[in-house]
Batch of 3 targets.
Target 1
Amino acid sequence: MVLCGTLPAFGWGPQGHNLIARLAAAHLTPEAAARAAEILGPGNTLASISSWADRIRRDRAATAPWHYIDIPIDQQHLDMVRDCPKGDCVLAKIEDFKKAVVDPAATAEQRKEALMFLVHFMGDMHQPLHCSDNRDKGGNGVKLDFFGRSSNLHSVWDSGLLGRIGQEDALFTQFSKDLTERLAKKWSKGTVGEWAEQSHKVAQKVVYGKLPKAPAGGQVTVDAAYERLADRVIKDQIEKAGARLAIMLNATLR
Ligand code: ADE
Ligand code: ZN
Ligand code: ZN
């Protein structure tokens, strides 16, 4: 068997998840911050645990589908019966873990896992390809050329594009500045299902809608125009995820 470095991707890379967790942490109430610290235990922060769910996915295969929901790209709306029939998609798990994190019957370890999953999945659902499918495993099956490297559409949206925008600390400073309380409040309106439909719309309009066509017999090549559009969308999605995670934790951990 040949093992190569391209295992299927399961969400924003660590840089995206760290940014979302850091943005959320900056918008927590003192009560929610204290409760989160107590649940996670000494030495842990929202950022330090934000990619834990990806690190354990290979040992816990049943959790793999929890990272996404495959809303067909040619559908306008989410349908939980069609898109999440077994209740093991990212939207169902966000609802499950939102409850588990404050379940008085849960053990301390269960509450900690619930919070670690919740922080991660709120990030994942804002990656447009984690709420969309074009019979291509959320873009994992679309091979392309990404600035001279062979990659795939899903991986480019998980981490390739964000990695080219800038370094995490610089992005955190920039995103924090733009994520005002007014914006955070506006974005926090709506349900988790509506946020998934927004992610899905972005996949329709930009991720697939603006993707350069492959030349006859050739492969798609990501160009600078696509990258510019993508950068704006990614910044928006990460800020939305951070704001919404903060509001959700503020309402839950009290
Ligand atoms: N596997 C199948 N669909 C997927 C998706 N939308 N995102 C990540 N992995 C997937
Ligand atoms: Zn993930
Ligand atoms: Zn992914």
Target 2
Amino acid sequence: MATAAAPRVYKNFINGEWVDSRSGNAYENRNPANADELIGMFVSSNAEDVDLAVDAAKLAYQKWRLVPAPKRAEILFRAAELLVQHKEQFSKDMTSEMGKVLAETRGDVQEAIDMTYYMAGEGRRLFGQTTPSELPDKFAMSVRQSIGTCGLITPWNFPMAIPSWKIMPALISGNTVVLKPAEDTPLSSYNLVQILTDAGVPEGVVNLVSGNGPNAGAPLAEHLDVPVVSFTGSTAVGRLIAEACAPEFKHCSLEMGGKNIIIVMEDANLDLAVDGAIWGGFGTTGQRCTAASRIAVHKSVYHDFISRFVARVKKLRVGDGLDPGIDMGPCINEQQLKTVMDYVQIGQTEGAKLLTGGHCLTEGPYAKGWFHEPTVFGDCNPKMRVAQEEIFGPVVSLIPIGRLEEAVEVANGVPYGLSASIYTRNVNRAFQAIRDLFTGIVYVNAPTIGAETHLPFGGTKKTGNGHREAAIAAIDFYTEWKTLYIDYSDKLQRAQIDNAE
Ligand code: ADP
């Protein structure tokens, strides 16, 4: 009788070796489109594992920080080349563990490639400033210095891109890292760490501990030998991370929720706006922190927009993201699906008009996954919970608006401030919106999603805590400034005093 092969067990990566967890436990990683498909077992790490990983990273830091940045860059460049070679396989792995369609997981791996090349380029820059001193025979400049071991805690919706957003700037700056990936998508982090190792990252410089938030994430954030913590995830957990970092005044970067908006003015190209709303609202099954979960439409085109938008939503094909005919995959897990279903209920109770969708999908090809129909609520009041709270699923709330000032007030009237977009052909209005939208990212005539790696990424209010990822902004987070004054006058020169006359 044939027996099923034992599932592969994926281990932690500590000090250059794949090792078991001290807990002796492992958990299942299953395909959200088909719960019968077991992708693998991943070890459930605990505080002891985190200690080992941090010890390795701390030791490795002493050498890595002294490797010239252009040499560190060569390793990253090789990693980018290897990622290019493995892009297709890693994309398929990612769709299997995360659910989003293959075109999007290819984009996710591509983002990791872009970030890795970009940060490799930074190896020959890492610019500081040189500037004249106010005193004669004195030289002034600033240089960046590395900090130490970085604890990186990442979510499941961009399983390779987000780890790369944190790992690459940390490494090029001369830091070492311990990564705790999301429980739902550890394989993509495993793939990324394997590539970095193959590219020649020395042992201990990159470490990975898999497991859940309280057992593996919390000890990492709290660890006294981890002076830098970067987190992407929910606002509730972000607050815990901030609290864990506060007593030690750690560098702490938080990227959290969003309640992003597309504003459609009466002079917009409506077909373009509908394209953007479909992509922004239902790309990644709405599970992006930049998802367009609110669409504010000018009253004079509201009904026209609704009929075009809803017709398109009805045509979206839901299913397994590996199938090329599919537009939208499942929710990540049962809990997320339940959250979506709860919000659909809340929206109806609040009096929002259900225009399409509203049900989870359980029959036939959907029986073994966490699928939900793409759902649109119309006639929403901007204060309704479905128009205020992050749902992180395929639910879009339409809000009729009048003047641009009203639209901006609605846009800014939520606790978050990540991304906003306006569709208009009036350049004055576009610039007014750019000025008045209080978000970290603004798009004109494009949806709320689509960040590029060489521009800062992050948001205001409860979306973040003032830091930005990607671009040079990331280097600012992973380094400390050191300001240098070199006096070659051979005498005491007192700043602000001896240059007074
Ligand atoms: P999501 O809703 O995207 O799952 P979470 O904020 O729950 O967002 O999780 C994001 C990351 O934070 C995951 O890697 C998760 O394991 C981790 N995490 C969850 N709880 C904690 C915690 N108490 N301390 C540290 N990390 C945590």
Target 3
Amino acid sequence: MSLKDRLEVWLGDITQLAVDAIVNAANTSLLGGGGVDGAIHRAAGPELLGECRTIGGCPTGEARLTKGYRLPARYVIHTVGPVYRGRPEDSRLLSGCYLNSLTVAMNHGIRTLAFPAISCGVYGYPIADASKIAVDVCATFMQTHDVPEKVIFTLFSAADFDIYTRYLSNRSG
Ligand code: AR6
């Protein structure tokens, strides 16, 4: 499968995806919140919070794996994006979210992985900049690794979906 076929963009609710793992845009406590985090915890049920409590939090830029419980996805990879402040640090931390989530996925044999637009809601990261980081980090990783086989960028608005679609189709390679 070519790299282009391994990277997909989808418009919708990430909690509905029957993939091996979905990524959660969490906070450092891993104890739930609003946005996509709240939606994932609601759909997975209280057992997810129970497992998250045993983890003891997650630093910004890192990633932690749990089961998916009542979700159609088998696993959830929780990562913590940076709060956007326009510093070089922000892009390094956001790249870390994607790279560390991909590494956790690879280490657990996760073949299909769906990402939301990490940090692009409450945390205020501009979607145009964040989409380039998301796509570039995933494409670079997948060029040298067979697992995950497929990454699905899941966007929650038509405007965000268009930004990703345009960047992916104009990107060479
Ligand atoms: N499916 C897919 N994408 C979604 C969904 C959904 N069900 N719901 C929202 N989005 P955000 P952040 C999009 O705010 O910026 C939480 O309280 C949304 O439109 O969820 O990383 C955490 O606990 C946006 O594009 O995450 C943290 O405290 C993207 O998901 C904080 O928010 C991310 O928006 C993390 O903020």
